[in-house]
Amino acid sequence: MKMSNKVKSAVAMAILVAISGTQAMAQDGVTGINAANTSLRQYVDPVSTLCLAIGAVVGIIGGVRVYIKWNSGDQDINKEIMGWGGSCLFLVLVGVIIKAFFGV
């Protein structure tokens, strides 16, 4: 069985590449971590602002729902107020904690 010239050259090239030592061009660990750190720091302010905006929308919706329940004569609105207020407080604190965690 005869091999064509293309197959011979491909096999020779594969053997040459396998035998010769190639140097890997990779980043060291510190450079990669610093690059990830700077990339994440760019998103801290937009994420914090987004949390505050979502908290504002949740607060408005919660206020309207509590108002409707209160006007309909429902006597047990304390649980509703605590639930909506707690969710708004959580969203406000998440934005602050994210900024404090990344030191921005």
Write a structural description.
Pfam families: DUF4134 (PF13572). This protein has 104 residues and is an all-alpha fold. It has a domain at 44-104. Helix content is 78%, strand content 0%. It has four helices and no strands. The longest helix has 28 residues, at 44-71. The radius of gyration is 30 Å and the shape is elongated.
Radius of gyration: 30 Å
Task: List SSEs in N-to-C order.
Answer: HHHH
Counting DSSP H or I runs of 4 or more residues, the number of helices is 4
Basic shape: elongated
The helical percent reads: over 70%
Report how far the terminal alpha carbons are from each other: 70 Å
The percentage of residues in β strands lies in: under 5%
Average pLDDT number: 82
| Extended strand count | 0
Major sheet summary line: none
Structural class: mainly alpha
Low-pLDDT regions: none
Pfam families: DUF4134
Keywords: Membrane, Plasmid, Signal, Transmembrane, Transmembrane helix
Signal peptide: 1-26
Protein name: DUF4134 domain-containing protein
